[in-house]
Amino acid sequence: MDTMKHLIAGLCAAALLASCADERPIAGEITLNEAFSAEFDLVDMYGEDATDERFEGKPMLIYFGFTSCPDVCPAALGVLTATLEEMGKDASGLQPLFITVDPERDTQARLVQHLSFDERILGLTGDEEAIEAAMKRMRVFAAKVPLEDSAVGYTVDHQSMFFLTDENGRPIRAFNDSIAPDVFAKRLKAFL
Fold it and tell me: Residues that bind Cu cation, according to the entry (predicted)?
């Protein structure tokens, strides 16, 4: 009889854990708290005002990067595009944003050209002060690094993560930039 009770209790516990599975973070996923804010006042790559309020009602997936990044940003954007493809029609419930950490070089025209491979991703820029304010609120690190004897002059070291907000613009999760697209798509769908 005790064996039957233990079996039933074990099955109930497994069912309870399975029902909560989509709420628990996975490896490379961080639950964000109120210390993070997705408040920003920028300009999109088409010259339109782009504040966090503009996207209210739709979760945002925010990535901070720069167009002349040689490796990390292209790889992350590849993950993002593959994830959006994996999500299918559910991807329309999400607003992917690429916020530059290099406003000096990343003009609106350059963002349009750089992001032309996927019209779902909207590039945002602004003056240095506005970009720094957005990074500070999201607790994103970025710093210029001089490149001696280089034609580009400098690069930007930066944190590389995807930040997910809820439909009210409140940051709720951060994901490692190397997450597998199929896993990422499943996790994002759980929050839509």
Answer: 69, 73, 158
